[in-house]
Amino acid sequence: MNFNPTTELRHLAILLLGSLFLGWLLNAVSLVVAITLGGYIFWNLRQLFRLYDWLKNTSPTDPPNSHGLWGAVFDEIYKLQQHQLKYRARLKRVIKRFRDSTYALKDGFVMLDREGNIEWWNPAAEKLLGLVSPADVNQLITNLIRDPSFKDYFEQDNYEKALELPAPINEKMTLQYQIAFFGKQERLIIVRDITDLKKLEQVRTDFVANMSHELRTPLTVLNGYLETLSDNSDQMEPMWQRAVASMRQQTERMKLLVKDLLILSKLETRTTAVNSGLVNVNALISRIHKDLKPMIDEKNQSLLIHSESDDQLLGNNEELYSLLSNLVVNASKYSPPNSRIEIKWGTNTTGGTLSVKDNGIGIDRKDIPRLTERFYRADKGRSGDSGGTGLGLAIAKHILINHDGRLEIESTLGSGSLFTCKFPFHRLQTPPQTAAIS
Ligand SMILES: Nc1ncnc2c1ncn2[C@@H]1O[C@H](COP(=O)(O)OP(=O)(O)OP(=O)(O)O)[C@@H](O)[C@H]1O
Ligand SMILES: [Mg+2]
């Protein structure tokens, strides 16, 4: 309905003028005007009551019939109502589609409010976590997944890494939890069943560990015979001398490989460093300096040590020795004669940093992210010459993981590399000050 305010005012003016004229004719102006205004107010009140009755009605009906200003008001409200109904229907359709799609997923989804209370979940989450509807609605998630590591993970607010834990309803199942923030600090938990993946990983680790273990005996026997043969190589023809030397070299390499694989599988089956004690990092560096001096001197390289802290590291001495020696051996192996290697140990309020820097051949940018993979060699040709197995950095990475640390690699091809081991602050300990004897 088209509403024109001028027409409405004109009608009101005509009504007033009409009543004045009638009042003048009847000689009762005040009375007629008062009756007219009373009638007008009464009519408006009636329209208001009709509007109220109509709005009170929960099921939407057509608006009451009216004209003028009230007709326009009824029409506009009706239009708004229709618009809202359409919007609500569209929202319902979207929610239904979202629910249908999450119902079809194998991964569990749990929606939480800002306080961590459960608001909604899909059937997969019900199956994986054993949630019960409606009893678990509005329950704190940490009351339902009671594992302390989940509580720690949930409360830390940094969900970059996923968390793996046995399922609360079945110890044999492994679940992976990933949390994401949405809206106003609300959280969404995505739960994935990774039991099969874990089993496969276990099979692979067991296979490598068993194979390496089984290979040790035949290799020792082979190596023993080859050693005896090479001790008597002067009685052999030159062709056989070369063959035996080459066989010895290869069995030595295999022995190294088996040794490294066994170390790696031992490190993989643990998640934290065993035999943890306080490691004097400066003493460790001196030991490495002494042990690797012959190798470094052979290439006429120099080894510089910068010790900026006396802080000790909570960890496993032999594992940390293996970590640092792997890095220093690499620095020497992948640097030309007369080059320089630097070892640095420093600490601050964020943690400890142990780094090895060289000015050797460097590493191509594309290879850096893959260096800690097993058997990965940046330059297969050159690394092959140096007799490496490609397991050194994989071992280094696992040792660091077990010490809550991480490895950072910076390198420029042709200019050198910097390998930095970062340790968290909670692994550091300042040694007690010894009183000076006068
Ligand atoms: N300081 C370095 N400079 C240049 N390249 C390096 C350096 N350290 C490692 N690399 C590259 O990274 C690869 C992987 O190193 P890693 O220590 O894992 O294996 P490797 O030295 O070949 O063998 P292994 O240490 O098992 O005897 C090396 O083959 C080499 O290409
Ligand atoms: Mg190496």
Describe the 3D structure.
With 438 residues, the chain is α+β, with helices and mostly antiparallel strands. It folds into 4 domains: 5-99; 105-193, PAS domain (Beta-Lactamase, 2-Layer Sandwich), CATH 3.30.450; 197-269, Signal transduction histidine kinase, dimerisation/phosphotransfer (DHp) domain (Helix Hairpins, Orthogonal Bundle); 277-429, Heat Shock Protein 90 (2-Layer Sandwich), CATH 3.30.565. The chain contains 12 helices and 13 strands. The model has no long low-confidence stretch (mean pLDDT 90). Bound molecules: adenosine-5'-triphosphate (ATP) and magnesium ion. The site of adenosine-5'-triphosphate has 24 residues, from helix 10 and helix 12.
Question: Can you give keywords for this protein?
Answer:
single chain, 438 residues, alpha+beta, Beta-Lactamase, Helix Hairpins, 4 domains, elongated, binds adenosine-5'-triphosphate, binds magnesium ion
Taking all residues together, what is the mean pLDDT? 90
Bound molecules: adenosine-5'-triphosphate, magnesium ion
Pairing-aware structural class of the strands and helices?
Answer: alpha+beta
Number of strands: 13
Largest sheet strand order? 2-1-5-4-3
What percent of residues are in strands?
15-25%
Low-confidence stretches: none
Order of helices and strands: HHHEEHHHEEEHHEHEEHEEHHEEE
CATH architecture of the largest domain: 2-Layer Sandwich
Shape, per Cα inertia axes: elongated
Looking at this structure, what is the CATH superfamily of the largest domain? Histidine kinase-like ATPase, C-terminal domain
